[in-house]
Amino acid sequence: NIRPSMSISEAQLHRSAINPESNKSLPMNKPDLIEYMMASTAHHNREDITQAVNVILSAIEDSLASGGRVEVRGFGAFDLRYHPPRVGRNPKTGESINVTGAYRPYFKPGKELREGERGNIKWDRLAVHHEPQVARRYLGDAGRMLVSALREPHR
């Protein structure tokens, strides 16, 4: 909900994050997140906020790349799940291909996020291993590096 005290830029950011007509979440990329953080705080130094976002994403990436788990209470948890080797199919040609086993990043929203203020949005578990483009879209460069770094099984 747009608060009367919001500035015009805050209201525009809010509308771009959630489309009330369709009740569908629109993608928010890293620059949008930085703009939102600048509008939401008294701190308006873009470089500091950009550095903070980069540090957070790097910490998540480093933890997952080393086989760890990142849990933010009330928000959710980033984790790895192993998917064993399997025989897949090339959708264009129908040819069978061997898909190697790999650990893939996975995000599970926390209870407060699922049932909180925006509880009208039906959450499905955001499984990056089902759709790696989700990680790339929502985590930007960090998501691309994360997906490529986790293509090989963890030792």
SSE layout:
Layout: H1 8-17, E1 18-19, E2 24-25, H2 30-40, H3 46-65, E3 70-72, E4 76-83, E5 86-89, E6 96-99, E7 102-109, H4 111-115, H5 132-149
Antiparallel strand pairs: 1-2, 3-4, 4-7, 5-6
Helix pairs in contact: 1-2, 2-3, 3-5
Protein name: Integration host factor, beta subunit
GO molecular function: DNA binding; structural constituent of chromatin
Keywords: DNA-binding
Structure report:
The chain is α+β, with helices and mostly antiparallel strands and 155 residues long. The chain has a domain at 68-149: HU Protein, Chain A. 41% of the residues lie in helices and 20% in strands. The protein contains 5 helices and 7 strands. The strands form 3 sheets. It has a 3-stranded antiparallel β-sheet with strand order 3-4-7. A hairpin with a 3-residue loop joins β3 (70-72) and β4 (76-83). α2 crosses α3. The longest helix has 20 residues, at 46-65. The N and C termini lie far apart (46 Å). Mean pLDDT is 72; it is low at 1-13, 15-24 and 121-130.
